[in-house]
Design goal:
The chain is an alpha/beta fold. It folds into 2 domains: about 170 residues, Rossmann fold (3-Layer(aba) Sandwich); about 120 residues, Rossmann fold (3-Layer(aba) Sandwich), CATH 3.40.50.1980. It is built from 11 helices and 10 strands. It has a 4-stranded parallel β-sheet with strand order 2-1-3-4, sandwiched between helices. Strands 8-7-9-10 form a 4-stranded parallel β-sheet, with helices on both faces. α7 runs parallel beside α11.
Length: about 300
């Protein structure tokens, strides 16, 4: 009798857990940084799937059949937009998804590649808007509003979570500005793999020079690489930085030919895994600034 009572109680508990899981809003984010914004705003009310995970490159990602299944089941899909995920519209259509699609960069003033570097703007708009913390706050408000639209019952939760997270981002922005201010202005020039830091440059005054354009889907030309090598020598640029999503061999070659030091690894388009130094957006920005400061003030 007692055993039957225990088993019945366990069955009720299992049912409650299952019901709770079913009540969660099924959400898809296209890549890891955007996923972190969604996680911070959605909290326990959402079941989150991220298509391009840690250390993944959304520029060249090839969706799988399992990704289509995730979209088919989702209630809302958060995308970066600004041509980061050239594959997402086809994937949504192929999945037959009826999910709301929210562009998280809505309201952000985009930067054009030509405005930043003077090079031919083959890829047009720079999609890496999250590299400015001020823009990250716009991502968060768009995520909040997108979640409220599909789950009005969770409004109070989403508003509170967003408010708490925005306060953390306010503190982060002040921290980033203070740390960059400690680097002498004439030393704020570095080389990175691809042109992913234009919004960081505009917000914080660090010049980033890259052999590749705003996307990683095209290789740098020999002419571009030679021009960058000459620029490093002419301007005495002190450091070359690797990126977690890019092949390091090109930058190693540039460093070898110019004598510029390898300053470390920056996280541009993706977070690290949970054990890495950039497991969240806030950790990523702090890590990048720490690496920049260490290389440019030594």
């Amino acid at each position: 009798m007692r055993l039957r009572t225990i088993l019945a109680a366990l069955a009720v508990l299992a049912g409650a857990i299952a019901a709770s899981a079913q009540e969660k809003v099924l959400v898809v984010a296209t890549f890891s940084i955007l996923g972190d914004f969604v996680k911070n705003v959605g909290g326990d009310r959402v079941a989150l799937e991220v298509l391009v995970g840690p250390n993944g490159d959304a520029h060249v990602y090839s969706p799988s059949p399992s990704d289509a299944k995730k979209l088919a089941a989702a209630k809302v899909v958060f995308t970066n937009g600004l041509r980061l995920e050239g594959w997402i519209d086809r994937l949504v259509k192929a999945a037959g998804s009826r999910a709301a699609v929210v562009t998280a960069t809505k309201g952000i003033a985009p930067i054009e590649a030509a405005e930043r570097s003077g090079h031919k703007a083959e890829h047009g708009t720079d999609p890496h808007a999250w590299q400015s913390v001020a823009n990250a706050k716009i991502y968060v408000t768009n995520v909040r509003d997108g979640l409220i639209a599909v789950d009005p019952a969770g409004r109070a939760t989403y508003e509170k979570n967003a408010r708490d997270y925005l306060a953390q981002l306010d503190a982060l922005e002040a921290e980033v500005k203070a740390e960059v201010a400690r680097i002498e202005p004439e030393r704020r020039r570095i080389i990175t793999s691809h042109d992913a830091f234009g919004y960081f440059r505009a917000a914080y005054g660090v010049q980033f020079i890259a052999p590749q354009g705003v996307s990683t889907d095209a290789e740098a030309s020999a002419k571009d690489v030679a021009a960058i090598i000459r620029q490093i020598r002419r301007q005495r640029i002190p450091a070359v930085f690797l990126e977690n999503i890019s092949d390091p061999r090109l930058l190693q070659r540039i460093a070898d030919e110019t004598g510029a030091r390898i300053g470390g690894t920056l996280y541009s388009d993706a977070l690290s895994d949970e054990k890495g130094p950039a497991a969240s957006y806030i950790d990523m920005m702090r890590h990048n600034v720490k690496e920049l400061k260490a290389a440019l003030t030594s």
